[in-house]
Design a protein that fits this description.
Elements: H1 15-25, E1 29-32, H2 35-45, E2 54-55, H3 58-67, E3 82-84, H4 86-90, E4 97-101, E5 107-112, E6 115-117, H5 121-129, H6 137-144, E7 149-157, H7 173-183, E8 188-193, H8 199-211, E9 215-220, H9 232-243, E10 251-253, H10 264-277, E11 282-285, H11 306-318, E12 321-324, E13 328-331, E14 336-339, E15 351-352, H12 356-365, H13 376-385, E16 394-399, H14 406-420, E17 425-429, H15 430-436, H16 445-464, E18 468-472, H17 478-489, E19 493-499, H18 503-509, H19 514-519, E20 541-543, H20 550-563
Parallel strand pairs: 1-4, 8-9, 8-11, 9-10, 11-12, 16-18, 16-19, 17-18, 19-20
Antiparallel strand pairs: 2-7, 3-7, 4-5, 5-7, 6-7, 13-14, 13-15
Helix pairs in contact: 5-6, 9-13, 10-11, 14-20, 16-17
This protein binds 3'-phosphate-adenosine-5'-phosphate sulfate (PPS).
3'-phosphate-adenosine-5'-phosphate sulfate is lined by residues 402-403, 407, 430-431, 434, 443, 448, 451-452, 473-476, 512, 514, 523, 525-527, 531.
Function: Catalyzes the synthesis of activated sulfate.
Domain APS kinase: 392-543
Catalytic activity: adenosine 5'-phosphosulfate + ATP = 3'-phosphoadenylyl sulfate + ADP + H(+); sulfate + ATP + H(+) = adenosine 5'-phosphosulfate + diphosphate
């Protein structure tokens, strides 16, 4: 198979038309795109999602969800939808043009709204992601982040989203096509990745290209990947180091601003179509490609070879060939990487490998990473951004009823941590936050959520920058706590501590006299009396406080932090 490198259609208008359209679009109703929608829009506009011409119509959406095809029959496995709030959707008329803006308010495109509907999200979760289970990142997004209504319609591109980082490494499909044309690369194997590359990856990609007698494109995703992944800045610096290890002029790297869904088999087919659009002829699909990890029962969402099977079944129609990902291992006696299934003398040699989990553990604990496993430049980069856990920032998030003892324990913990020294400590106590950060808020569900999200935001910034944030709000709603956990876990550990003092005991203590007022109906929506509290199901620690000293409670938290490697036993 050789590539056809003719340009593919883009959705952009010419420069002059774009200037004019931009002025006109300033008067349109605007939708502020989410980070995921910006990624989707970029690939829609530059042809990465060819043959899509905009966000899916209702008919195309139904057909994609049910049959992996657009309503005209073309293969397309992933619903690319514009989700918005009910409130925004209500104000629109069918046929109306809207402006699509990035997060700074820059108009990137206009869209003619041809469709507006309320999707059956549970069905989308089942059919597209395989299960209606919030443990799947895309299902979680669907239920807990995406708006209730979808809008569909053709997009007119005005300008590309601006990227200030690694500009020279970002290529549209047509830019890559013309690069391949210029270089005479008629066969190109694409390697998709969201992880740093180590020696085994370098070996397997090099072999894959050699076997297909093709050139190699390292095509990492730098849009949105799985929560908790190494950030793309670090990864790209690592990739650049690895790029030098390939024979000159055989390999290139380009960054793909894709928002992954971690949809396993469907995602593999989607990735293949996107690479086809970028001018590639081959695509490496590995074991558990774009796998989201395990579901809420602890089982994998997809079988390990489901993605390969689905890709293989469609590769002819897609016009891009699958290359098997070889499981490469280090053979100590021969001091080289070999494909596991090609080693004949397995019993006579020492086979070495380090799993992703083991690598993370070694990085977290500052342990040695052998040279046979990775390149020193890569390890250095990873260590620079991921110091051992005992030097990273983290958040301790106390939750419990009013008067449960959260603030007192949090205070004691703060003092103990400050005594230890090493990292700055900030206490975001419920009452303090309500004075400074959330002074205008009341206790409706909406306001409580806003309050907790603000606390979460500040804590995530502290965590990101290597400090310790101690939060002590009531935080009564499980979904909000989960969202905060996700925000923070992107940067460091989130330690949820449920201060499990019973409501009866809190009411008996009634230190602020609020329970009395709540019983008398003088304070409305009072947690535990007239407003719900979702008991945390799996907190890192649950503290019983009755007849237990504050000092002891704080000490239990310290022990937990120590067992998690967050504070080092010096
Ligand atoms: S929340 O739900 O997490 O936003 O609450 P939080 O910011 O932690 O604020 C709780 C403190 O406000 C006082 N208070 C109330 N609590 C619960 N429900 C109602 N309706 C209410 N009205 C006022 C109460 O003193 C809480 O203080 P703590 O420190 O938890 O005892």
């Amino acid at each position: 198979m050789q590539n056809n490198l003719a340009p593919i259609p883009e959705l952009y208008v010419s420069y002059d038309s774009a200037q004019k359209l931009k002025l006109e679009a300033a008067d349109l109703v605007s939708h502020d795109l989410t980070p995921r929608q910006i990624c989707d829009l970029e690939l829609l506009m530059n042809g990465g999602f060819n043959p899509l011409k905009g966000f899916l119509s209702e008919q195309d959406y139904n057909s994609v969800v049910e049959d992996m095809r657009l309503s005209d029959g073309s293969l397309w496995p992933m619903p690319i939808t514009l989700d918005v709030s009910e409130q925004f959707a209500e104000g629109l008329e069918i046929g109306q043009d809207i402006a699509l803006r990035d997060q700074e308010g820059v108009i990137l495109a206009t869209m003619t709204v041809t469709d507006r509907w309320e999707p059956n999200k549970a069905n989308e979760a089942e059919k597209v992601f395989g299960a209606d289970d919030d443990k799947h990142p895309a299902v979680n997004y669907l239920h807990n982040q995406a708006g209730k209504i979808y809008l569909g319609g053709p997009v007119t591109g005005i300008q590309q989203p601006v990227h200030y980082d690694f500009r020279a490494r970002r290529d549209t499909p047509n830019e890559l096509r013309s690069y391949f044309r210029k270089m005479g690369w008629r066969k190109v194997v694409a390697f998709q990745t969201r992880n740093p590359l180590h020696r085994a990856h370098q070996e397997l990609t090099f072999r894959a290209a050699r076997e297909a007698q093709a050139n190699l494109l390292i095509h990492p995703v730098v849009g949105l990947t799985k929560p908790g992944d190494v950030d793309h800045f670090t990864r790209v610096r690592c990739y650049e180091a690895v790029l030098d290890k390939y024979p000159a002029a055989t390999t290139s790297m380009s960054l793909l601003n894709l928002a992954m869904r971690m949809a396993g088999p469907r995602e593999a087919v989607w990735h293949g179509l996107i690479r086809k659009n970028h001018g590639c002829t081959h695509f490496i699909v590995g074991r558990d490609h774009a796998g989201p990890g395990s579901n809420s029962k602890g089982e994998d969402f997809y079988g390990p070879y489901d993605a390969q099977d689905l890709f293989r079944a469609h590769q002819e129609e897609m016009g891009i060939e699958m290359v098997d990902f070889k499981h490469m291992v280090w053979v100590q006696e021969r001091a080289q990487y070999e494909a596991m299934d090609e080693i004949k003398d397995k019993d006579d040699v020492t086979i070495l490998n380090i799993s992703g989990t083991e690598l993370r553990r070694r990085l977290q604990e500052g342990l040695e990473i052998p040279e046979w496993f990775s390149f020193p430049e890569v390890v250095k980069e990873l260590r620079r951004t991921k110091p051992p856990r005992s030097k990273q920032g983290f958040t301790v998030f106390f939750t419990g009823f009013s008067g449960s003892g959260k603030s007192t324990i949090a205070n004691a913990l703060m003092v103990k941590l400050m005594e230890m020294g090493g990292r700055p400590v900030t206490l975001l106590d419920g009452d303090l936050v309500r004075k400074n950060l959330s002074s205008e808020l009341g206790f409706s569900k909406e306001h409580r959520d806003l309050n907790i999200r603000r606390i979460g935001y500040v804590a995530s910034e502290i965590t990101k920058n290597g400090g310790i944030a101690i939060c002590a709000p009531i935080a009564p709603y499980a979904t909000t706590r989960r969202a905060v956990r996700e925000d923070i876990e992107a940067f460091g550990a989130f330690v949820e501590v449920h201060v499990a003092t019973t409501i009866e005991e809190c009411e008996r203590r009634d230190r602020k006299g609020l329970y009395k007022l709540a019983r008398e109906g003088k304070i409305k929506e009072f947690t535990g009396i007239s407003d719900p509290y979702d008991v945390p199901e799996n907190p890192e620690l649950r503290l019983q406080t009755e007849n237990i000293e504050v000092d002891n409670c704080a000490h239990q938290v310290l022990l937990k932090l120590e067992s998690m490697g967050l504070i080092a036993a010096e």
